[in-house]
Structure formats: C-alpha cells, structure tokens
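hiii, so i know i said id send this last week but things got crazy w the move. better late than never?? heres the sequnce for the chain we talked about at the cafe, plus the structure i predicted for it. fair warning i was half asleep when i ran it
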Amino acid sequence: MRPTFRFALPLALCLSPLTASALNIQPGVWEISSQDMQVGGQAMPGMQEMLAQMQNLPPEQRQMMESMMAEQGLSLGAGGVQMCLTAEQIKAQEIPLHDDSDCSNEFLERSATLWTFRFNCPDAQGEGETRFISDKEFTTQVKGTYNGQPSSMESRARWVGSDCGALGRN
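okay and structure toks below
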C-alpha cells in the first residue's frame, strides 16, 4: 500500500465530520468525498486518487481494507466513502463522526443551514463548519492539526439512495 493512501484515507475519515441538522436530511446511503486536503502545507491525494489506489491494491490487501471499513459500517462508492444514516440517527442527531471513541465534539451553533463545531481526537484537533445545501447534500470545511501538523480539508456529502442494503450501521 502506498504511504500516501495509508495516511490520507484515515485523515479523510477523521476530518470529515458527518452531521445532520434540524432540516430533515434524507435517511439512507450517503457518499462523502474529500478534496483540497492539506497536512503540513502539503496537498494530500484527493478522493479519486485514493479510490484509484484502492483499486490497484493486491486482492488480499484490498479485501483487508474493505473488511476493516465494513466493520465500521463503511464501503467504497464510485465517488467516495459510503455509509448508512438511519432515520433514528438523524432524528436524534447521533451521527457517527469518526470511529474513535476517544474523540469528543462540541457543537457551537446549529441552525437549519449551518453547523459549527470543534473536535478533539488523539491525533487531530480543530474546528469546522457544515453547510446544508439541501436534504440530499451538504459540505464540510475543517481546519486544525493532524499529528501535530496544520491541516485542512473540504468534503461534500451527497445522498445516494434510501436502501442501505448491506451497509451496516456504525
């Protein structure tokens, strides 16, 4: 596995807080793609490059990565990482932000169109905002540090469909 992929995918998952707002976003499968990711002043691979790297892994390594993601309720889609958000999660605003229980989140503002937040994880700290474009799309911008280096990232989430199928709940 190339070092950039090993570094960039966990960073993308850690710095892509998924949130729901008072506006009723659709339950079902959501696909999150990241862009403009930087750590320590260096650009990290974009989502399309990470997906291409995943496709080029030896079969056993790819299967291992897919299994690890499936355990977290994630899968790879055509344009990003997919996860299932249930109606119950959205209503309770209990959206999994990351797979690390050692992380904490503080929401500073919650309106129907904008959420601002702070997060603190063992390897990453910072703040960001999520803008809700519609019930099927939102964007997130995050700035902070990752492994002690300045980092930033933008992500876009889009609703794919209502049937979560094989995607489990995180």
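btw The radius of gyration is 15 Å. thought thatd interest u
miss u guys!!
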